[in-house]
């Protein structure tokens, strides 16, 4: 049984990675934040009494279900929006330059501007290529290599066999390596 402190430590440790995983999937920062918060609340309310070792796979399953629910809601919402779009149209194209600079403020100051720009461009290319992966490959890849979950935990969280997880991860890594190599990036 996980103590309140163990649960709090787990949630604090998984927060950023879960957010990035949700952003890769839904491609919307605000929606990703809502998804992660909902998943954390559900874990604390319904599964907080589980042993600490069970928290990572349970949380990943909750997170993946929340992401799938988001897409289901979006599908319904998009259907209604497209039906009523002929009644009026408003564009909300807000761009906040300060938000862009704030996101870069946490980068290391020891790098030169050129090195920082190059690093950010490479990371952006990698992010783009991860987002292009099919959903199941991206999900398996992020759980295995971002969340550092083993094959069994990933299979349990994804609701598939261990062989499927291995296949998805292998295809994802080969696709990423090929795409990045084509762009001149070798890691």
What are the salient characteristics of this protein?
single chain; 187 residues; mainly alpha; Rna Polymerase Sigma Factor, Chain: A; Arc Repressor Mutant, subunit A; 2 domains; 8 helices; 0% strand
Describe the fold and architecture.
The chain contains eight helices and no strands. It is mainly α. It folds into two domains: 1-77, Rna Polymerase Sigma Factor, Chain: A; 113-187, Winged helix-like DNA-binding domain superfamily/Winged helix DNA-binding domain (Arc Repressor Mutant, subunit A, Orthogonal Bundle). The longest helix is centred in the middle third of the chain and has 30 residues, at 55-84. It is globular and about 50 Å long. Residues 83-90 and 95-109 have low confidence and may be disordered.
Write the layout of secondary structure elements.
Layout lengths: L3 H23 L2 H19 L7 H30 L12 H8 L8 H20 L2 H12 L4 H8 L3 H21 L5
Helical run tally: 8
CATH-derived architecture of the largest domain: Orthogonal Bundle
Give a count of the beta strands, DSSP E runs of length 2 or more: 0
Largest pleated sheet: none
Number of domains: 2
Which descriptor suits the 3D outline?
A: globular
- Low-pLDDT runs: 83-90, 95-109
Radius of gyration: 19 Å
CATH class of the largest domain: Mainly Alpha
Range of strand content: under 5%
Structural class: mainly alpha
Distance between the termini: 41 Å
């Amino acid at each position: 049984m996980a103590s309140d402190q163990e649960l709090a430590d787990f949630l604090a440790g998984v927060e950023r990675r879960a957010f990035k995983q949700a952003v890769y999937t839904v491609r919307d920062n605000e929606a990703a934040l809502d998804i992660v918060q909902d998943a954390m609340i559900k874990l604390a309310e319904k599964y907080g009494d589980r042993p600490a070792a069970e928290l990572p796979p349970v949380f990943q399953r909750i997170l993946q279900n929340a992401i799938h629910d988001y897409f289901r809601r979006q599908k319904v919402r998009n259907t209604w929006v497209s039906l009523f779009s002929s009644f009026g149209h408003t564009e909300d194209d807000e761009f906040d330059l300060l938000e862009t600079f704030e996101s870069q403020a946490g980068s290391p100051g020891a790098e030169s501007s050129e090195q920082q720009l190059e690093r950010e461009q490479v990371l952006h290319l990698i992010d783009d290529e991860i987002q292009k992966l099919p959903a199941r490959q991206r999900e398996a890849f992020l759980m295995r290599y971002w969340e550092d979950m083993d094959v069994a935990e990933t299979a349990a969280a994804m609701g598939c066999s261990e062989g499927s997880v291995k296949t998805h991860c292998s295809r994802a890594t080969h696709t990423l390596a090929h795409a990045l190599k084509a762009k001149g990036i070798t890691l």
